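User: Could you write out the 3D structure of this protein bound to fe (ii) ion? I've included everything you need below.
Assistant: Certainly. Input first, then the structure.
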Amino acid sequence: MQLLTGMANKSCTVGHADANNITNVSLLESEVTEFPQTPEYFGLNRPIGAEYDLNDLHVVGTIPVEVEGSFFRAVPDPAFAPFMEDGGAILSGDGMISAIRFAAGKASISMRYVQTERHKAEMAAGEALFGKYRNPFTDMPAADGLDRTVANTTPIWHAGRLLLAKEDGRPYRVDPKTLETIGSHDFGGKLQSPTSTAHARIDPMTGEMFMFGYEAGGLASTKIAYFIVDKDGNLTREQWFDAPYCAMMHDFTITENYVLFPVYPTTADLDRLKAGGDHWVHHMDLESWVGVMPRYGDVSELRWFKGPKGVFCYHMMNAHEDVDGLIQFDQCLSSVNAFPFIQRASGLSIPPWEADNRFARWTINLTDGSDSIIETVVGPPGDFPVIPASKQGRPFDYGWMLTMNPEMQGPPVLGGPVGAMFNMLMRLNFLGNPPQSLALPPAHSFNEPVHVPSATDGHEGWLISVVDHQTGPEEFEHECWIIEAGNVGVGAVAKIVIPQRLRPQVHGWWVNSEQLANAV
Ligand SMILES: [Fe+2]
């Protein structure tokens, strides 16, 4: 591949007559020197800016017959260097949609920018127009009134449509075959909320998608919009309520009969934003809360349960109602917000080894009149939890997540918003059996896996994850690994070599070939 240098912020298409397996490589190569040499832009986080289609990738091993479909990945990648210092910039990279496609034992990869209003405006201007993360008071005048979202967090497949979501705005719809952006998606004009979570929960029985949007009443507001989209993609109800305070509500969860809204004390303040400050500050002395209401109930039925002070969770594995009717809610919990730039804005500096990270089960009793929560630690620290889609909101025996190898020799790969990438994949068993783990060699890291179910009874299916290998200060190699989900310790059954530099992925979504064939 020919890399173009010195073409600051200009897009071009490169022909490849000598490489018939590579087509349509378009590079948006901002000069590396334009980006600050800070952790948000250095090493694995270095902006790439390349759109491409690479076919017939080299496969080591055999791709399982059941792995037929597309692994969609959301990859932030800022197209333009910032015009102001911003620790939160790591969350503001332009959304790219990546598809790693599997068909008949072969694999390909495609990468495209999501053509958000923001990305298009900056492309037209040839420079960054938007200032700090979620602070429009720091924008250039040319950005006034434009949609600030970068659609960089989660690809969501629902009702035959592919959406790219980020919690500060509405999702963008993307064509799953061409990866061309269709536009901002408001569910046929029905969605009132200007924001929508990147963590939708889809009920495996009804096919409904449960979502919410926070700061729905505007910047730093306490308004939450809770909405349901039916199996055909129609928004069927939307209700608003107030959270105890304006918090970063990154994820939520459902059970068979209830919806849970966890609130952790990382808060926003309008006056701080108007003064050009950071969106988020974490408070160690504020209580956490979980709002619980019947899934199809009225928000007036919402009850708030009080959790410990100062804790934070980005991702929940699942929630379910047990045989006694208790709600069991499983999450990757920490005693502080793990993002260093949020800690800095909060006057905190708590290293990971002092953050009391744990996999925690919170038990909520809806019948004893108490508003308290009982916590049980059921697993080690980690994040990026994954379960079979069929177990969403239901009792489940096992799940997977990424963690740090406690016996690792050498430092982890630096990258991503926390600053260090995970280097171990773990299968947790909730029936009392020991966990399984797959530890990577030094200088390797995992990105969040997706789960591919198996049609064979008793087979747990497959996990697919992009693995990074650091070979020098600014040099990396990447592979996509396919791992047997019920036997992760064995390692990959297939490794697909990706001959292109990749930035860290946020979340992914598996869409099988039958679903793709039935795309709307
Ligand atoms: Fe997330």
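The longest strand covers residues 462-472.
User: Perfect, thank you.
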